[in-house]
Design a protein that fits this description.
CATH architecture of one domain: 3-Layer(aba) Sandwich
CATH class of one domain: Alpha Beta
Bound molecules: adenosine-5'-triphosphate, iron/sulfur cluster, magnesium ion
Order of helices and strands: EEEHEEHEHHHEHEHEEHHEE
Distance between the termini: 31 Å
Strand order of the largest sheet: 6-7-8-3-9-10-12-11
């Protein structure tokens, strides 16, 4: 949370984004802005569409509707050549660090690959120097440059993945559950590495995680997804102090302690409850689990509305539900 955020122009503006997998709509009506240097936490139960959103932004899956405007250019309408050029600033770190590395490439080759593509003027010595420096920057050592991914632990592989993603100092780093496959003792180190790199480079982040303690630690704002839609967007402290949407309230109530995560505390929050949240076309998708559902909830999909400045929620009863902290709420 050390980065300087520029709120003058959004780096990224998502409008009405929709993704269909055949007849299944995984993402619908998704709109939000991301500003330079900002970290957006993205939370929601399994199957709510978090990875689909991340992949749609980077055009790793096809969107059927909407726009993804990156620094004024709609990525969804770019031709492949333009997209390739823009990708230098858009990087992703995946959940499974070993699977995301090519087993036949040395770590040096893997980290150097983006340099070969985007900084072709570098000679071999300069490239090796950059890779060695990056290895040191992510807490590894330069002499590891000729080793292969299988020679490293999960945490080390994730450091290699981060080195590869950050070697070009991208403007946006999407992290899709980057620590969830790692030992708890390693998770905090990787989170802090990401924070340090973000502070140094000024990269904006979209950080997907089931771990609310980590999301709270990292994020400036938090997006809550349910059944393929955004149901709440709020500054981090506002969300944790007074979540509006009944799903967010239930989600945050599952966190065992409101104690902030310090740089030395490891990630340990309760996972988000698993369920089969499916997008619906009529009414509020959460109504079957909502203690506050009323007749209109079965008829009309609640729009995302600004309830208080900067705090948006998609709930017909968002303005009338008790604005209490989590401790006094007895909802879903
Ligand atoms: N390639 C695909 N083909 C068909 N359906 C898909 C595909 N990818 C995702 N889905 C479906 O889209 C929905 C959203 O999936 P997604 O992976 O985005 O959820 P998620 O929020 O990232 O879940 P998790 O927390 O488990 O990673 C799910 O119903 C999933 O089954
Ligand atoms: S719109 Fe209705 S069903 Fe949906 S969360 Fe709000 S009160 Fe509950
Ligand atoms: Mg996912």
């Amino acid at each position: 949370m050390n980065a300087v955020i520029s709120v003058s122009n959004p780096l990224l503006r998502i409008t009405d984004l929709r993704v269909d997998f055949g007849s299944h709509t995984a993402l619908r009506d998704v709109s939000f802005d991301l500003f330079a240097g900002e970290t957006l936490g993205l939370v929601g139960e399994s199957g709510s569409g978090k990875s689909t959103l991340a992949r749609a932004i980077l055009r790793l899956v096809r969107s059927s509707h909407g726009s993804v405007v990156w620094r004024g250019r709609d990525l969804l309408s770019c031709d492949s050549r333009e997209l390739r050029a823009l990708r230098r600033d858009l990087q992703i770190v995946f959940q499974d660090p070993l699977a995301s590395l090519n087993p036949r490439m040395t770590v040096g080759e893997a980290i150097a690959e983006p340099l070969c593509i985007f900084e072709g003027a570098l000679n071999a010595r300069e490239r090796t120097g950059r890779v060695a420096a990056m290895l040191e920057r992510v807490g590894l050592t330069a002499h590891m440059i000729s080793r292969f991914p299988h020679e490293f632990s999960g945490g080390q592989c994730q450091r290699i993945g981060i080195a590869r993603a950050m070697i070009l100092s991208p403007k946006l780093l999407v992290c899709d559950e980057p620590v969830s496959s790692l030992d708890v003792s390693i998770q905090g180190q990787i989170v802090n590495l990401l924070l340090d790199l973000q502070r140094d480079v000024g990269t904006a982040m979209i950080f997907i995680s089931h771990n609310l303690a980590v999301v709270r630690h990292l994020s400036h704002r938090i997006l809550v997804m349910y059944a393929g839609r955004l149901v709440e967007i709020a500054p981090r402290d506002a969300l944790f102090a007074a979540p509006i949407h009944p799903y967010s309230r239930a989600l945050l109530a599952a966190v065992p302690s409101p104690t902030p995560v310090s740089r030395t505390v490891q990630a340990s929050a309760a996972p988000v409850e698993a369920s089969s949240s499916q997008p619906v076309t009529t009414g509020c998708a959460f109504r079957g689990r909502c203690a506050y559902a009323v007749a209109v909830c079965a008829i009309t999909i609640p729009p995302l509305e600004e309830m208080t400045p900067g705090h948006w929620a998609a709930c017909h009863r968002g303005r009338e539900l008790p604005a209490s902290g989590l401790g006094t709420f007895r909802g879903c």
